[in-house]
Amino acid sequence: MHRKGVYRLEPRDVHVWSLRVDLSSAMVERLARLLSADEVSRAGRFVASADRGRFATVRGLLRVILSGYIGRPPEEVALETGRGGKPRLADRDGPHFNVSYSRGRGLVAVSARSEVGIDIEQVRDVGNFDILAEVCFSPVERHALAAVPAQERDSAFFSGWTRKEAFLKLQGVGLLKRLDSFDVALMPGEPARLLRLHGVSDAPARFFLRALEPAAGYIGALAVEGPSSRVKWRRWQLVSAQFEDHTVSRLRTASRGPQLSAKRAS
Ligand SMILES: CC(C)(COP(=O)(O)OP(=O)(O)OC[C@H]1O[C@@H](n2cnc3c(N)ncnc32)[C@H](O)[C@@H]1OP(=O)(O)O)[C@@H](O)C(=O)NCCC(=O)NCCS
Question: Residue 56 C-alpha to ligand 1 middle, in angstroms?
Fold first, then answer.
């Protein structure tokens, strides 16, 4: 159980935060001030200013969220790179987390005791569908996708994509290089689940997948190690005037963590 900050995580809990990451430039600047020297240097390597801003926004918001669990100011949240390049808290007693963003929206998963992976994608026209399916999906998944009615194919595609990506991100990506080494359920109406992992016969019972609907036009997926997790959806209501004017500066000195309104939608 994590009780150091203002957000409480019971042992089985996984919190999923839904965020807007297309914030005002004033807000981006404030969030950028929370970044570590390494993060500032990484942001500086992006050629496009939009990418710099997006990186600073997502990292800044991540720091604000994590500060609420560990009870440290956002700029003092110590992050490091873990297995397969996956970011994690340097304090090994802290919660597990994972982040994803796509075109103005982001998701952050925070888990008390299990590794997590999360992914979000805006549903869009993917161009050459068959070539992309060939690259991303296993033969079983391609077969399932081919049976989906044309009007539901984009959403089935992104359901499969986000489930695979979330599972890869749970593992730290690098450890599971082959996208055809596992199958996920992706048919419309079919519950998200892992169907097979090469060489691990009990994997479907060990890993839990959940479909997420973060916003209209977006699809997400969460992967958790361990089947008995309790997922709580947290929507970050940016009370913009208050947030823009005061919150980040208060956060920079506060030790209790974020003063943002986090509403549980379910
Ligand atoms: C690293 C990778 C997971 C990022 O995925 P993405 O879809 O481009 O981006 P997302 O928004 O979902 O996730 C990015 C965040 O994931 C986290 N992340 C980075 N490396 C990670 C890793 N090895 N494992 C888990 N999470 C990782 C970081 O917080 C990162 O945010 P940052 O760039 O601001 O530091 C991705 O580049 C990758 O290697 N994917 C391989 C799988 C693949 O080819 N999938 C195709 C579709 S099935």
Answer: 16
Task: Tell me if 214 is assigned to some domain.
Answer: yes
59-102 tens-digit pLDDT:
999 999 999 899 999 999 999 998 888 999 999 899 999 999 99
Domain that holds residue 208: 115-226
Strands (E) located in 112-239: 116-122, 182-184, 194-197, 207-212, 218-225, 230-237
User: Rounded to two decimals, what is the model's pTM?
Assistant: 0.89
Residue of 161, 169, 171, 186 to test ligand 1 pocket, by largest number of atoms within 8 Å of CB: 169
Tell whether ligand 1 has an atom less than 6 A from the beta carbon of residue 168.
Answer: yes
In a domain, 151, yes or no: yes
By alpha-carbon position, which residue is closest to atom 43 of ligand 1?
165
Is there a domain that residue 12 lies in?
Answer: no
Same domain for 144 and 41, yes or no, is no
